[in-house]
Structures are given as C-alpha cells and as structure tokens.
Design brief:
Layout: E1 12-22, E2 27-36, H1 80-91, E3 93-97, H2 104-115, E4 119-123, H3 130-134, E5 135-137, E6 145-147, H4 149-156, E7 158-163, H5 170-180, E8 185-188, E9 194-197, E10 202-208, H6 223-228, E11 232-234, H7 246-256, H8 260-278, H9 288-299, H10 304-316, H11 320-335
Parallel strand pairs: 3-10, 3-11, 4-7, 7-10
Antiparallel strand pairs: 1-2, 5-6, 8-9
Helix pairs in contact: 1-2, 7-8, 7-9, 8-9, 8-11, 9-10, 10-11
The structure holds adenosine-5'-triphosphate (ATP) and magnesium ion (MG).
C-alpha cells in the first residue's frame, strides 16, 4: 500500500445526514448517506482474498452501520488491512496493540468499510452499563425487551470493536468468554436464559495500549480473553524518537499546506513527545491527526509556538510544568 491512495477517496455526489433511532438496536445512529460514482478505495487493498462481502447475510437495517468515507491508512508495507482481514477470516477475532493515536480505531473503520461489515463500537474505558451492552426490559411483558450492543452484534453480525479492552470490567469480560470460543453463543440471563448463537458473520476486534514496564498507566488484559485471541498485531507511530518518517511529513504538508520546513519541525516535535510518552515522562503522545491540527493553525498564519499553545501544548496536559516541557521541546527543535 502506498500513501498515494490518500487522495482517492470515493467521490461524493450527494450527502445527506439522517438520524436513525431503531429501538431494536437500542442506540441512536447518525448515518451519512452518500451516492458514489465509484469505490476507488478498495482497489488498493487485497481484501477479497479473505473477506468477501458477497458472503454476508445481514438484516438490511444494520447495513446503516457500515462505515463510509474512511480516509486511507498510511503504512510502510505492513499490510495491516490484509492481515486483519486474514485474522477475521481464519479465526473470527484478533487483537490490535499499540500506543494511543497509532491508528487502531482508524484501521478498524477502514476494514469494516472495505469488507462491507457493520461496525459496533464499544469503548471499554467508558464504563458503559451492563444494560447498554446486553439489554434490558423497558416495560412490562416479554415483548418489551431491548437488546444491548453486544447482544445485537451476536444476533445480527458485523464487527464488534472493543476499544481499550484491557479496561473492561471483569463481569462483562466473563460473559464474553463463551461467545469467543469457536462455535460461540451467549446466554441472556436477564431474559430467561435465552441462548443466542453467534451470527456466522460476527467478528470481533479488540484493541489496547501495550503493557510494559516503560508504559505508564496500563494493565494487562485478562487471561481468559487473551487465550481466545489467535492473532495479535502491533502498531506504532510512524515517527518516534529519532526515527522520522518522510511520509508523515508529506502527509502534514498535503493535508494543511504548511511548508516542508514547518512540517519537518512538527513531526520531529511529535516524535520526541511520543518517545517521552512511551517512557512515561509525558502523559500523552500526539497522533498524526493531532499534529495535523497544529499545522492547520500554522497554515492560517499563526506562529509555530502560538499555534502549539492552542493545540499540542494544551493537549498534552493542563499541568503548567508539563506544558513548559513541551514548549521547550518545540523551541529546541525549531532552532536546530
Ligand atoms: N497510519 C495512519 N494513516 C493515516 N492516519 C492515521 C494513521 N495513524 C493514525 N492516524 C490518524 O491519527 C488519529 C488517531 O488515530 P486513532 O484514533 O485510530 O488511534 P488509536 O490507535 O485508536 O488511539 P487510541 O488508542 O487512543 O484509541 C486519527 O485521526 C487517524 O486518522
Ligand atoms: Mg482508538
């Protein structure tokens, strides 16, 4: 894959936004509908070899959950899209590991779009209630049951994406385990122990930050879930420390119109902040999206430092001392 596909998004002829509230899925979904002249994006990935959208059997309602217009993912020949597709085809589930902002969520959206798979997304760090995840009664009588997100995914299929899976509460993780065995099913204890077979096209992707001595604030995923994941894919920043990726510099230039020189400083600063984040010295490492935001303010005529104050400095922390460290890194890099 090359970064040239960044420009070949599907051409949009018409865009309308509709809010779909489907009680069956117990969630409000904002859907962007668009007509396309062609779907150029898919040509850049060899996905059909593993995931063939012609094989899916979904209820038409959930096709609303297939992501659209996901930007291209830039990599250095790692073939992440194909490897995720292969893991899903072979094992139906896989894990993505990498620091914050390395594009894990981005690539899941891309795979879902290219494969034509509805996406159910849960951030496990947000302490979503068991009711929201599994379901609940909203009135008297059996017909007043509403499926939660995980139940809907199990019943209707698509990709369930569990972000920050290591933050998942133990009781939820325990209930997921039987679903994740090869011929999985789930038991709705809340609903007379109804047994729901895992839909034949129900795939699971979990993601999390790496756990290592140098990585602050992470905890390991529980052993039962770890055992049920067959494939683990590692993600990292394009540029980190002294390793600077020209493709990331080019992306910033292309997306914002800043000069090569400014883009180079931005990426070098980003790479240093990421290094310090990975060693636990800073609380946050910027994604390429964060650096692009900084560059956009510069491209509008603001100085490098003032633009940084509005974006990257405040983003890293509210703590004045830490903000001072970030400013120092920027000044030092700009003077080099
Ligand atoms: N290789 C890449 N190509 C294109 N865009 C990227 C790439 N990596 C990251 N990005 C962009 O950086 C931003 C952060 O990416 P994303 O949210 O997917 O990271 P993440 O790994 O899911 O982070 P977190 O662990 O915090 O959830 C997004 O705007 C994404 O589009
Ligand atoms: Mg994410």
């Amino acid at each position: 894959m090359t970064d040239s596909n960044d420009e070949v998004n599907p051409r949009i002829v018409e865009r309308t936004s509709t809010k779909v509230v489907d009680p069956k899925f117990n969630c409000n979904i904002t859907v962007s509908k668009m007509k396309r002249t062609s779907h150029v994006l898919s040509k850049n990935y060899d996905l059909k070899r593993y995931l063939d959208s012609a094989k899916w059997t979904f209820a038409p309602e959930i096709s609303e959950l297939i992501p659209k217009d996901t930007p291209a993912y830039i990599d250095n020949g790692e073939k992440y899209v194909e490897r995720i597709a292969r893991a899903l085809e072979f094992f139906r589930q896989c894990a993505l590991i990498g620091p914050s902002g390395t594009g894990k969520t981005h690539i899941v959206y891309l795979v879902a779009e290219l494969a034509g798979l509805p996406l159910w997304e849960i951030n496990c760090g947000l302490q979503t209630s068991v009711f929201d995840l599994f379901g609940r009664y909203v009135g008297l009588g059996k017909e007043n049951w509403i499926d939660g997100l995980i139940t809907s995914w199990c019943r209707y299929g698509g990709i369930l994406y569990l972000d920050e899976a290591n933050m998942m509460k133990q009781d939820i993780a325990t209930r997921l385990n039987p679903i994740l065995d090869q011929r999985g099913h789930m038991v709705l204890t809340e609903k007379d122990n109804e047994i729901i077979q895992r839909h034949k096209d129900a795939f699971l992707i979990i993601s999390m930050n790496p756990v290592s001595s140098e990585f602050a604030g992470t905890k390991p995923i529980n052993a039962a879930m770890r055992r049920r994941m067959s494939v683990w894919l590692n993600f990292d920043y394009m540029s980190v420390g002294t390793k600077i990726d020209q493709k990331e510099i080019d992306l910033v230039v292309r997306k914002t119109g800043v000069s090569q020189k400014d883009a180079e400083i931005i990426i070098k600063v980003g790479a240093e902040l990421r290094k310090q984040y990975k060693t636990g010295e800073l609380p946050y490492g910027p994604s390429v999206g964060d650096l692009i935001n900084w560059a956009k303010i510069i491209a509008d005529g603001t100085s490098l430092l003032d633009a940084a104050d509005e974006t990257i400095v405040s983003l890293t922390s509210d703590d004045h001392e830490i903000q001072g460290i970030v400013r120092k890194i920027i000044k030092k890099t700009a003077e080099m």
